[in-house]
Amino acid sequence: MSMRTLPLLFLNLGGEMLYILDQRLRAQNIPGDKAHKVMNDIISTMFNQKFMDELFKPQELYSKKALRTVYDRLAHASIMRLNQASMDKLYDLMTMAFKYQVFLCPRPKDVLLVTLNHLDAIKGLIQDSPTILHQVDKTFRQLTDIYGGLSAGEFQLIRQTLLIFFQDLHIRVSIFLKDKVQNSSGRFVLPVSGPVPWGTEVPGLIRTFNNKGKEVKRTEFKHGGSYVAAPKEGSLELYGDRVLKLGTNMYSVNRPVETHMSAASKNLASQTQESIVPNPLAKEELNLLARLIGGMEIQKPSGPEPGFRLNLFTTDEEEEQAALTRPEELSYEVINIQATQDQQTNQELVRIMGEFEITDQSRQSSSKGDDWLAMMDEL
Predict the structure, then answer these.
(1) Each residue of 247-262: pLDDT tens digit?
(2) Packing angle, helices 130-147 and 6-27, rounded to 10
(3) Ramachandran angles phi, psi of 308, nearest 5°
(4) Residue 244 backbone phi and psi in degrees, to 5
(5) What is the pTM of this model?
(6) Cα–Cα–Cα angle for 317, 320, 321, rounded to 5 degrees
(7) Domain extent listing, the chain
(8) What phi and psi, each to the nearest 5 degrees, are found at residue 32?
(9) Which InterPro entries does this entry report, sorted A to Z (predicted)?
(10) What is the C-alpha R_g of the chain?
């Protein structure tokens, strides 16, 4: 397991979350000033320097449930409210999109280029705020400074860690199904065409060498694909050409996106509940999560500006039905952490957990936005 995986996982999933929220804000015709405020607030919170400093410390990945809790906190960093079913769908779309990108990376190192594509697109979502742009650019420099010099072996370990994290997640996404890059079981279809990894040759030739290292024979073979050489290596510069398109915004063209749990995933969920939903109160993970959340400065709404509810589904009825049919093992409810039970817990941890706890009543409220400010007061 790589100790350098968490920043890449968080930033890429966060980028996908912002793509989806931007698409839904446009689809629901949310007024421009409110939509811009939501995006700016979430991006500012996501790239807060104190939060980034905690994130970039070498550490193991969190469990799926603990990481989901971080994104729940992040998604509610502004005047927008998501209920449980919409948050579940948002997280499903985020994880499957990034899993697809990790699968298709030509080289393990290209995970870094995917991350930079997300940062490039996030900057395009920021409205009239040089300060937030500076926050993103500073994170960009942290990424390139830390990951730019890693070896191919270290990136392979990062990629392997990511694939282990995504293992057994086979949620069908309508965009992937329509584009025929995902089959009905929720598994991805790997292409047999396109550019080969940078620094490698198009397959089709076998070279044979003697014991002195001299080439003595060439044999051609049919590989059955349609490959081409990579035009150039993706740039790590601030405004460079990434070449790779993975990680760009696939929701820039407005089209509905649905998710469906495959039968295999449902069966697997009941068999592997412990691995998918581990004990969130394990002491070490609790401390790591608390420290990370402690660096996430949530700006509480001020003034009379009303909140609003965002629906990840086409209708409220679809949202309610999704909440009823989702397997309980895969419904990542927010973790309620009772830090006061531990007499050794320091005051800072108690403060963080007190701000973090969300009551069941506020999470299950059926109102369409009037209770948003009240819920934020409880964070």
Answers:
(1) 999 988 655 566 665 5
(2) 150
(3) -150, 160
(4) -70, 135
(5) 0.78
(6) 85
(7) 5-198+238-251+288-298+306-330
(8) -55, -40
(9) OSCP1
(10) 22
